[in-house]
């Protein structure tokens, strides 16, 4: 499968790593020269392209004409909508997934803008890959299904009621533990006393809770 990802932030980079590991052909685009330079050599098998993915010429140069999936994962909703529309209408990409950064804009992310899968910012990476590609073999890289255990990621949003609360004060679903908190790009030990901040990404392990139940605990 040929995959084109716009946005080399944490989400876009994770998607590139997982899909590349599953032997897909992956191209990652970002407009930030420094960010692209930092990723050089860190993403084996991923083609890095510097430029504005909202520009049709850049998308075509990056391989949109032969892409099976385009993922618009930038931090700007307007850019993600433009990329989705270009991918679907101009380049006839079969499948388009776009990240929704602001929940108030979620109603825009549909077929009118060329979006097949709208992905809220707090949606786990697992769900994005599974829904956008249908590649259960790829999801298996992150899901411990044989042991009946799921690895679930959730993000603390600025509107979350968990902001400022200690991790230990959050009532988790039964059979769920926090494996790590990723803050400013760095994993940290999930100390129960640590206060949660907007932007924190939590990786949880559970043998019984659903993703919805885990997200609800932190929102």
TrEMBL record:
Transmembrane segments: none
Domain RCK C-terminal: 139-219
Pfam family, one: TrkA_N
Assigned GO CC terms: plasma membrane
GO molecular function: potassium ion transmembrane transporter activity
InterPro entries referenced in this protein's UniProt entry, alphabetically: K_uptake_TrkA, NAD(P)-bd_dom_sf, RCK_C, RCK_C_sf, RCK_N, Trk_Ktr_HKT_K-transport
The keyword Ion transport belongs to this UniProt entry's keyword annotation: yes
Domain of life assignment: Bacteria
Segments forming domain RCK N-terminal: 1-119
Key words of the record: Ion transport, NAD, Potassium, Potassium transport, Transport
Presence of keyword NAD: yes
Protein name in UniProt: Trk system potassium uptake protein TrkA
Originating species: Streptomyces calvus
């Amino acid at each position: 499968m040929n995959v084109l990802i716009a946005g080399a932030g944490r989400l876009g980079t994770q998607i590139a790593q997982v899909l590349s590991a599953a032997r897909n052909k992956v191209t990652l685009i970002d407009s930030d020269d420094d960010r692209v330079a930092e990723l050089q050599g860190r993403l084996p098998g991923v083609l890095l392209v510097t430029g504005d993915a909202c520009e049709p010429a850049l998308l075509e140069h990056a391989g949109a004409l032969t892409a099976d999936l385009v993922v618009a994962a930038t931090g700007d909703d307007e850019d993600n909508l433009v990329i989705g529309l270009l991918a679907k209408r101009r380049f006839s990409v079969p499948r388009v997934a776009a990240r929704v950064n602001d929940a108030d804009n979620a109603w825009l992310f549909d077929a009118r803008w060329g979006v097949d899968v709208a992905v809220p910012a707090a949606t786990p990476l697992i769900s994005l890959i599974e829904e956008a590609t249908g590649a259960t073999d790829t999801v298996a890289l992150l899901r411990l299904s044989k042991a009946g255990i799921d690895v679930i990621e959730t993000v603390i949003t600025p509107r979350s009621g968990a902001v400022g609360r200690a991790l230990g004060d959050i009532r988790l679903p039964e059979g769920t533990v926090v494996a790590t908190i990723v803050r400013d790009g760095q994993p940290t030990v999930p100390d129960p006393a640590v206060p949660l901040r907007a932007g924190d990404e939590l990786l949880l392990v559970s043998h019984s809770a659903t993703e919805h139940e885990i997200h609800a605990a932190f929102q």
